[in-house]
Amino acid sequence: MSMDGLPLSPAPPAHVAIIMDGNGRWAKARGMPRLVGHKRGVESVRDAVKAAKALGIRYLTLYGFSSENWRRPLAEVNDLMGLLRLYLRSEIAELHREGVRLRIIGQRSRLSDDIRALIENGERLTADNANLTLTIALSYGGRDEIAHAAKAIAMAVRAGTLDPEEVDEETVSRHLFTHDMPDPDLLIRTSGEKRVSNFLLWQCAYAELVFIDKHWPDFSRDDLESAIREYHGRERRFGASAGSSR
């Protein structure tokens, strides 16, 4: 539905992925510590989830913390982990009340024990919810995910449970973290940067890309609706000629 309560036409994309970029630059532009920008970014996450649910989006995937983000200064990483703890402790009950399923993808082994426990509790509590699947990528990298899938496939071949001649695109997809979700239809990145930054590299092969000049803390439902309208204005051919079906 739009801001005036009328439904968007046509229906929104089933799966929207967002690279939430620009928290630090938002804060710097206002003479504030980077942590303030990250805190405001958490508020934007809350608003984006509400908007996606209201608009009928079935899957929302957010790039929360990349595998490369571990290289940031230790103080900033600790601040981000603290915000993650706060989000998981404060938001899971609300997500559950709203019928939102929470999923986390990425290499959890690098996260602390208490954060992993919060994640497992949240996923378990919300597992049967069906209004929206919220996936947050934490300690995540697209290349790492593909390497992880390749390793699992190689082990299956070595164990004799998979014929190498049967390995195809579907085989790879089944071994990704997102194996039980449709690929994103729309990928949005905020802050004006125009790259995918190692996010869902396999899954976004045919996603429509929309780049927004606003930093993530300023992202609103209006911006989400605008991106959806741009998505609907494009012809998705999936490699076929104009006017052809996929």
Give the uncertain stretches in residue-range form: none
Helix content: 40-55%
Overall pLDDT: 93
Major sheet: order of its strands? 3-4-2-1-5-6
Characteristics of this structure?
Undecaprenyl pyrophosphate synthetase; magnesium; 42% helix; metal-binding; 7 helices; Isoprenyl transferase; alpha/beta; 6-stranded parallel beta sheet; 246 residues; magnesium ion binding; UPP_synth-like_sf
Walk me through the structure.
The protein is of the alpha/beta class and about 250 residues long. It has a single domain, classed as Undecaprenyl pyrophosphate synthetase (3-Layer(aba) Sandwich). The protein contains seven helices and six strands. The chain has helices at about 25-30, 35-55, 75-95, 115-125, 140-160, 170-175, 220-230; strands at about 15-20, 60-65, 100-105, 130-140, 185-190, 210. The protein has a six-stranded parallel beta sheet with strand order 3-4-2-1-5-6, sandwiched between helices. Strand 3, helix 4 (about 115-125) and strand 4 form a beta-alpha-beta unit. The model has no long low-confidence stretch (mean pLDDT about 95).
